[in-house]
């Protein structure tokens, strides 16, 4: 099998490329525009006889066509994905996430190639704190940011192309990922690298917002279940029951890194900050028999800290840019 992975130099995409090479005999073609959040170093170690990298934009129809016509499967990760950035510059999110997905859909339609579309639980909006409710595949979409709105739009395009044109496609909506090779603008690596540089982590608001965390390796494993056993036209929610408040996550990071639990600064909360995400993964477990227990969160954070500690050259330059940007935004001033 030949697989095209879009967004291959990004966090989840690059980890998935490594997973494919390690666990299958597939030939992998990675496509990435190499925007600020991508890093070619994330693809180091992939063998040249199994992996080919192409620099290019998913909105380039001619390029996408030339790649899709020679593959058996497209796994579509490529997206702008940072909520804070979507508040500052929504246009690029609409262009990449909506128009880019449209371009992919038209290409797989033309060449009758199977597509798996990667999405997020943020399309569902948020849940109340201190409740037991969880997102399911039937939860109505209620996105609250330009980012989540653009991903909701791309999901709906995929569903429409399945129904209207017979495109063979599946969708997965995953909870918050963490692990190695994640850009330092994201919550967990930002806090880890703050401590590594001798700076206090920063916590939005009270920190009571809850996220359902999944290690990126578990996400890759679940995707293989969807790719191999998923039914075209179906959506599958991916999570491992990893609910933690942002405050709890920071406290765990600080404790594992030898700092007091209260060694952080509160900053003004982000506009429209979702309260709680939680995934009901019953469908993927029952229908696709995905029964992985998942990486223990404490162990996963410990190994993630070790990775960033050992790979400072991978993130130092990006960290400087990220922190300058945050300092220039009013909602990231210490309160």
Which segments are poorly predicted (pLDDT under 50) over 5 or more consecutive residues?
330-335
Cα radius of gyration in angstroms = 19 Å
Helix content: 40-55%
The 3D shape can be described as globular
Q: Which fold name is given in CATH as the topology of one domain? A: Rossmann fold
The CATH class of one domain is identified as Alpha Beta
Q: What does it look like?
A:
- 42% of the residues lie in helices and 16% in strands.
- It is α/β, with parallel strands linked by helices and 335 residues long.
- It has a domain at 2-178 and 213-238: NAD(P)-binding Rossmann-like Domain (Rossmann fold).
- The strands form three sheets. It has a seven-stranded parallel β-sheet, sandwiched between helices. Strands 7-9-11 form a three-stranded mixed β-sheet.
- β1 (2-6), α1 (11-23) and β2 (27-32) form a beta-alpha-beta unit.
What is the topological layout?
Elements: E1 2-6, H1 11-23, E2 27-32, E3 51-55, H2 61-68, E4 73-76, H3 83-88, H4 90-111, E5 114-120, H5 146-165, E6 169-174, E7 176-178, H6 187-196, E8 202-204, E9 210-215, H7 216-229, E10 235-238, E11 243-245, H8 246-256, E12 265-267, H9 282-287, H10 297-310, H11 312-327
Parallel strand pairs: 1-2, 1-4, 2-3, 4-5, 5-6, 6-10, 7-9, 8-12
Antiparallel strand pairs: 9-11
Helix pairs in contact: 1-7, 2-4, 4-5, 6-8, 6-10
């Amino acid at each position: 099998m030949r697989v095209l992975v879009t967004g291959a130099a990004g966090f989840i995409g690059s980890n998935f490329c490594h997973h494919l090479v390690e666990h299958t005999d597939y030939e992998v073609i990675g496509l990435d525009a190499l925007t600020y959040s991508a890093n070619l170093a994330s693809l180091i170690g992939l063998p040249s006889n199994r992996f080919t990298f192409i620099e290019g934009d998913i909105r380039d129809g001619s390029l996408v066509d030339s790649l899709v016509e020679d593959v058996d499967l497209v796994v579509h990760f490529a997206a702008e994905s940072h909520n804070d950035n979507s508040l500052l510059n929504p246009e690029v999110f609409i262009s990449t996430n909506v128009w880019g997905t449209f371009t992919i859909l038209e290409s797989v339609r033309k060449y009758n190639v199977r597509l798996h579309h990667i999405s997020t639980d943020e399309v569902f909006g948020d849940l109340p704190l201190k409740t037991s409710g969880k997102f399911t595949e039937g939860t109505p979409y209620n996105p609250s940011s330009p980012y989540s709105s653009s991903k909701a739009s791309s999901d709906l395009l995929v569903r429409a192309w399945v129904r209207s044109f017979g495109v063979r496609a599946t969708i997965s909506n995953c909870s918050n990922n963490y692990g190695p090779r994640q850009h330092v603008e994201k919550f967990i690596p930002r806090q880890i690298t703050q401590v590594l540089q001798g700076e206090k982590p920063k916590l939005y608001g009270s920190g009571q917002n809850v996220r359902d965390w999944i290690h990126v390796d578990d996400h890759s494993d679940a995707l293989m279940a969807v790719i191999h056993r998923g039914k075209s036209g179906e959506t599958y929610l991916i999570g491992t029951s990893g609910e933690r408040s942002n405050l709890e996550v920071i406290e765990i990071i600080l404790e594992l890194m030898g700092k007091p639990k209260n060694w952080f600064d509160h900053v003004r909360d982000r506009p429209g900050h979702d309260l709680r995400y939680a995934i009901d993964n019953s469908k993927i477990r029952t229908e696709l028999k995905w029964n992985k227990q998942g990486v223990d969160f404490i162990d996963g954070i410990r190994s993630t800290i070790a990775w960033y500690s050992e790979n400072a050259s991978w993130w130092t330059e990006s960290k400087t840019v990220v922190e300058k940007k945050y300092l220039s935004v009013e909602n990231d001033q210490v309160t």
